[in-house]
User: Which sequence fits this backbone?
């Protein structure tokens, strides 16, 4: 029988840990664990636990990415704001106006905007308020043209969209563009809705799902108009929806029907939605931030109470090691 050296032109190298820059088909001996390993094409997709919020709540807004996120407002007219660094949450400066169900947009936990929402009692009601976050405090800036709650946001603190929502008796198709100083009404959605998801920028966005009733509709924004594209696999509302572009987004959890809370996760690749790994804890009315390969879902209602849990989503391909024998 030919030896490995004879067939491959070299000997199997010994390593105490996995070698750097593993190549497809590379073979080595793991001295520490006394096993032979080979590099194979693989991927990792799933949810893992992140740091808990300091204050469990739902009906809140969010902005940012998995390792630099902001979570603000929430039930009982909360003004609380928490900042996430990828491992833990820290309470930071409160909103000027506590509220529920606002929209949010921002690149990270140092630059964001919060807009719209609802302040109870009903006599106060739906809000058009907009506040800008500079990393330490919120400043009131120009109001939206039309106050709304249960709306979606997309973009950054200086270039954002406020999409759909409830103004306040039914789903809305309204869409407003923020240029860093004021809001301008632009092209409406094709399908009016509330409790929907948003992803992308103010010139290339995605709007998906929502109610009422629950919808699977997905629409893509090109800077001037919306075009209907492929639907979600599962119609729903009250989920966390986010993504950096209109070609890469996540739709996480939400409300489908009895039982109310779901763990379903779908990823958008620019053409279609694909069901992927479920959340560990089903929830609705939660928030999220990040991309379709590195996202986070936090807060919400888990069926019995407000949740403080954070879950982090990872989807990555590449070369990984696999054991093929023992010594």
Assistant:
């Amino acid at each position: 029988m030919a030896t490995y050296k004879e067939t491959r032109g070299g000997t199997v190298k010994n390593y105490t840990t996995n070698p750097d820059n593993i190549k497809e088909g590379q073979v080595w001996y793991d001295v520490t664990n006394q096993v032979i390993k080979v590099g194979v094409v693989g991927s990792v997709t799933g949810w893992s636990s992140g740091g808990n919020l300091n204050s469990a709540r739902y009906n809140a807004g969010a902005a940012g990415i998995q390792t630099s996120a902001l979570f603000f407002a929430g039930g009982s007219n909360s003004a609380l704001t928490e900042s996430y660094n990828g491992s833990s949450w820290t309470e930071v400066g409160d909103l000027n106006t506590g509220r529920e169900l606002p929209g949010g947009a921002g690149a990270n936990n140092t630059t964001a905007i919060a807009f719209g929402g609802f302040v109870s009692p009903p006599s106060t009601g739906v809000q058009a308020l907009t506040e800008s976050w500079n990393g330490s405090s919120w400043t009131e800036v120009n109001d939206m043209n039309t106050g709304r709650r249960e709306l979606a946001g997309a973009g950054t603190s200086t270039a954002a969209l406020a999409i759909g929502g409830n103004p306040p008796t039914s789903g809305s198709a309204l869409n407003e563009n923020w240029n860093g100083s004021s809001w301008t009404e632009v092209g409406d959605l094709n399908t009016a809705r509330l409790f929907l998801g948003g992803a992308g920028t103010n010139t290339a966005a995605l709007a998906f799902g929502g109610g009422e009733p629950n919808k699977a509709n997905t629409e893509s924004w090109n800077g001037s108009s919306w075009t209907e594209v492929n639907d979600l696999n599962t119609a729903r509302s009250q989920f966390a929806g986010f993504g950096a572009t209109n070609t890469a987004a996540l739709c996480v959890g939400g409300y489908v029907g009895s039982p109310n809370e779901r763990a379903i996760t779908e990823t958008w690749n620019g053409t279609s939605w694909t069901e992927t790994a479920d959340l560990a804890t089903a929830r609705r009315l939660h928030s999220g931030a990040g991309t379709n390969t590195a996202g986070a879902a936090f807060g919400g209602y888990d069926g019995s109470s407000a949740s403080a849990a954070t879950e982090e989503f990872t989807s990555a391909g590449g070369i990984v090691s696999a054991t093929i024998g023992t010594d």
About this structure: The longest strand covers residues 310-326.
